[in-house]
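pipeline/complex-builder :: batch 7 item 3
reading input block
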Amino acid sequence: MLASRNVRPAAGHRMAAAPGQRALLAGHPGRRVMVAAKAQKKEIMMWEALREAIDEEMERDPTVCVMGEDVGHYGGSYKCTFGLYKKYGDMRVLDTPICENGFMGMGVGAAMTGLRPIVEGMNMGFLLLAFNQISNNCGMLHYTSGGQFKVPMVIRGPGGVGRQLGAEHSQRLESYFQSIPGVQLVACSTVRNSKALLKAAIRSDNPIIFFEHVLLYNVKGEVGDKDEVACLERAEVVREGTDVSIFTYSRMRYVVMQAVNDLVKKGYNPEVIDLISLKPFDMETISKSVRKTRKVIIVEECMKTGGIGASLSAVINESLFNDLDHEVIRLSSQDVPTAYAYELEAATIVQSSQVVDAVERVCGGRVAATV
Amino acid sequence: MQTMLKQHSGFRAAQPGRQVVKVRAVAAPLKTATSAPAKAPLVTPEVAKDLYYDMVLGREFEEMCAQMYYRGKMFGFVHLYSGQEAVSSGVIRLLRPDDHVVSTYRDHVHALSKGVSAREVMAELFGKKTGCCRGQGGSMHMFSAKHNVLGGYAFIGEGIPVGLGAAFQSKYRRDVLGEETSDSVTCSFFGDGTCNVGQFYESLNMAALYKLPHIFVVENNLWAIGMSHLRATSRTSGDETPYIYKKGPAFGMPGVLVDGMDVLKVRQVAQEAVERARRGEGPTLIEAETYRFRGHSLADPDELRSKEEKARYQARDPIPQLKKYMLEHGLATEAEIKALEDKVAEVVEDSVKFADESPKPERGQLLENVFADPRGFGISEDGRYRYQQPGFSSGTAIVS
């Protein structure tokens, strides 16, 4: 079953701006025609979709609650819980002091005893301070307790490289978290999947680390029905193609799609897959795609060393080696702290031109499609 | 808002020169058990016998653990509680079944006091399937959902915020879910070394801020492995030595110092803290002065603590103290006490036999309980969830 049956890739979203891509924002061609749909459904921003997910799940289940810094009166640093404290009260939308380790542990204890806390990291990077609780408690105690206690909590927040936020606020913690047993890592990327995935994460009995991206909160798109709940383990086929499989996630999906625009003009037909589930990988979707195109490019924002791409590449090499016609290519961030300066920051992360180059390299030259 | 903790006889309120906080519950160090017994016994014969049984069980269980460790029946780090029984028994035996307990790596006896059977704890230590965590936790990770033991947490301080979460849940049930009868409390146990960890302070702050029904129980045994409390912790203002209990009022909660070698005093102090928490008046910090009669763990050569210091605390062993009290106050006869001790010996022997004869975990356990929802293992190439594949229930599948 393809992910698109669960969550169709949202069409018509605006491109997320990021270093090295500003120029491309202005023109914005190729917005798909969805006039009919638009007449019925209005587009909202991703932060609004996430807020809707939290609101609807809190309404549905009184044990769902939110904890974190500035989630209440302030409404969340990216407004994902805006106004919810008025509806649900201070206790269900709990403003915590600045103590990541402390309130993460409190979330674990609450989850163990029957609540379903959504713990927000104001910035994902701050969760390094809660690493012990996430690893040792969230990840392990269902197992160490012999299955007696479960930890149904969602740890969510903004991560990734924003715009000149400096090294500490530009971290991609998915690579740090991926080796923790017992947690699932989910990265949303569109308005529609962000809402449907967050709802699924809240309903899951497993601890879910839910990655949002600082530059995607204002992306616009439509959401599905109120009942649309995505499958947390499914990748999303963003674009079907035959030449090469490009695996990506989070904001890099947009960088890839930008490259695809150019590549299509050049006569390439790449397949693009949004991993969504960074741990575990959806091996069905991944292997089907690899067997079809026989070439793999991984585009990610996290570090090359020990990153998501490193793990995915290893898995593909291990299990699909005979289906490959070309070595796996990884386009990752440089292994450097993210600089403040615009140019250095842009040089740290993958740009769409690199994706174009990589596809051309892997697929060989093509005659440009006649326009 | 903060009600004052009533002062026990024998406590004296320490009055700092400057009263910024209204809480005046800071108690001065207690006199130890050498003080003359009051005429009316502090507890009923039933309670006294229960406490005595629980303390002797704790002691005998741990001494048996040492034997079993040296006999190669258990491995890893094993931290024994011997000497500190008055704290576990004094606090936990007055809790209700729905109250929660959070412990540390030194957790066997907390689990026993909360009602987990000696069989289950011993079998866990033997790494057997019948252990309270099916052999998956071990010495430092004792859990019991049935008895609301939220676990032994092996890293310093990490259990306290978890305890806070349980207390939050109790308050949430009452305030948000409208369960009016929800008044369970949570007791988190930890040592003097933990009181220099940030999580301790983060938790003191949040517990007081949200008025959570949470009791911080510091088992101050003076040593964090080889680091003396006096070398690790800066002195509280105006004192010759550091007092942890004085950190309670700094956060707006009562702090109480109690002789942790006297189970009745511990119980008295804990009773007040528990009642206070149940009334919705918030947390309490209890510092119980105690001592471990053995090294930090069975792997610790224990070379730094002086003979004199050990002898001084050995003389205050909580178990003979309670026995003496019970006899003097007519709470039990010699014969009854002997019967309790015999019962303990029987239970501990039985736990070893049970653990020894219990089956080892099967390979199939390997992949169980990693995720509460096994879909967390993901989807395999054939489109099925991995947990539905052959080899999963036998524990032979490769899961990533």
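note: Chain B touches chain A through 63 residues (CB under 8 Å).
queue -> next item
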